[in-house]
């Protein structure tokens, strides 16, 4: 049983690392393939969205306003592989105004962030993102 649990834990870590690798490559198709059809996406300090179509629309909005790479990614998973957490550092550039946020002028930022995941049938069923929005606003407002 422990060996099987360890394998599930390892598969979950590989799944989440694959998700972030696809993110860094700008490969949205692969990111979407790693999600459950009914994925739940909890936006940082925002609303909850459900489904791959909503997730794809969110990524299109993000890609229009931001260019980001994640560095120093660390992923943890429960032994049963059902849940995971990640910590990373976002290195980004603010390209185009995003509604309700300061004007974009090509500002760069470096921001720690994290995410929590539920895994079901070897797909990401929930992703909850967190970063300090006020820190980001302070950086792009300089």
Structure overview:
The N and C termini lie far apart (54 Å). 37% of the residues lie in helices and 40% in strands. The protein has 142 residues and is of the alpha+beta class. Strand 5 (108-120) and strand 6 (123-131) form a beta hairpin. The chain has helices at residues 2-25, 28-33, 52-65, 133-140; strands spanning 35-42, 48-50, 66-77, 83-94, 108-120, 123-131. Strands 2-1-6-5-4-3 form a 6-stranded mixed β-sheet, with helices on both faces. The protein has a single domain, classed as Roll (Nuclear Transport Factor 2, Chain: A). The protein has 4 helices and 6 strands.
Q: Which tags fit this structure?
A:
six-stranded mixed beta sheet; 142 residues; Nuclear Transport Factor 2, Chain: A; alpha+beta
Compact summary:
The protein is an alpha+beta fold and 142 residues long.
Write the layout of secondary structure elements.
Blueprint: H1 2-25, H2 28-33, E1 35-42, E2 48-50, H3 52-65, E3 66-77, E4 83-94, E5 108-120, E6 123-131, H4 133-140
Parallel strand pairs: 1-6
Antiparallel strand pairs: 1-2, 3-4, 4-5, 5-6
Rg calc: 16 Å
Structural class, please? Answer: alpha+beta
User: What is the domain tally?
Assistant: 1
Strand content: 35-45%
What's the helix-strand series? HHEEHEEEEH
Number of strands: 6
- Poorly predicted parts: none
Q: Strand order of the main beta sheet, please?
A: 2-1-6-5-4-3
CATH class: Alpha Beta
Helices, by number, come to 4
Query: Could you tell me how far the N terminus lies from the C terminus, measured between alpha carbons in angstroms?
Result: 54 Å
Helical content stands at 25-40%
What global shape is seen?
globular
- As for the CATH topology, it is Nuclear Transport Factor 2, Chain: A
Provide mean pLDDT, rounded. Answer: 95
Report the sheet with the most strands, covering strand number, pairing sense and barrel closure.
6 strands, mixed
Give the second-level CATH assignment, the architecture. Answer: Roll
């Amino acid at each position: 049983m422990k060996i099987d649990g360890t394998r599930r834990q390892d598969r979950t870590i590989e799944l989440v690392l694959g998700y972030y690798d696809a993110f860094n490559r700008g490969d949205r198709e692969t990111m979407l393939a790693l999600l459950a059809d009914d994925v739940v996406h909890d936006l940082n300090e925002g609303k909850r969205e459900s489904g791959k179509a909503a997730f794809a629309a969110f990524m299109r909005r993000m890609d229009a306003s931001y260019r980001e790479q994640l560095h120093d990614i660390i992923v943890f998973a429960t032994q049963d592989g059902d849940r995971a957490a990640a910590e990373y550092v976002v290195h980004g550039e603010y390209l185009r105004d995003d509604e309700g946020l300061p004007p974009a002028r090509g500002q760069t930022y470096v921001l720690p962030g994290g995410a929590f995941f539920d895994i079901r049938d070897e797909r990401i069923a929930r992703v909850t993102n967190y970063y300090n929005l006020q820190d980001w606003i302070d950086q792009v407002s300089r």
